[in-house]
Amino acid sequence: xxxxxxxxxxxxxxxxxxxxxxxxxxxxxxxxxxxxxxxxxxxxxxxxxxxxxxxxxxxxxxxxxxxxxxxxxxxxxxxxxxxxxxxxxxxxxxxxxxxxxxxxxxxxxxxxxxxxxxxxxxxxxxxxxxxxxxxxxxxxxxxxxxxxxxxxxxxxxxx
Length: 159
Description:
Elements: E1 4-6, E2 11-14, H1 22-29, H2 32-36, H3 47-59, E3 68-71, E4 77-79, H4 89-103, E5 109-115, H5 119-128, E6 131-142, E7 145-155
Antiparallel strand pairs: 1-2, 2-3, 3-4, 5-7, 6-7
Helix pairs in contact: 1-3, 4-5
């Protein structure tokens, strides 16, 4: 069963990602800025990578936590949570996802890890109500270097 959640007049969040989405996933994933701000996304990102991603989602026991962001009018996939930025889209989407996670799915805490240079994502989280809990120094390995990540979290009683 496909579940869609309305974000606003333009966007929906869908729990459906299918092989029909491969061209859109490859198109939006093939972006150096996205690569620089994610831990495991390859660059360049190809349709083969999109196929591997969909196969991973299909096999994952937590695949119910992976969402697509779609244009309401056309149902075109324009992102998988973090593919779009600087248009206010993610703030709108994250607000809805936090509400769903806390009020429908029973979460009491949501965490987000953000690279030090990704100020835009930090601002989005802060707008939604996430609180910066600290900096995890040299927490992961990216582009041949150990890099810091900022830990943000929001609790159910804070929404």
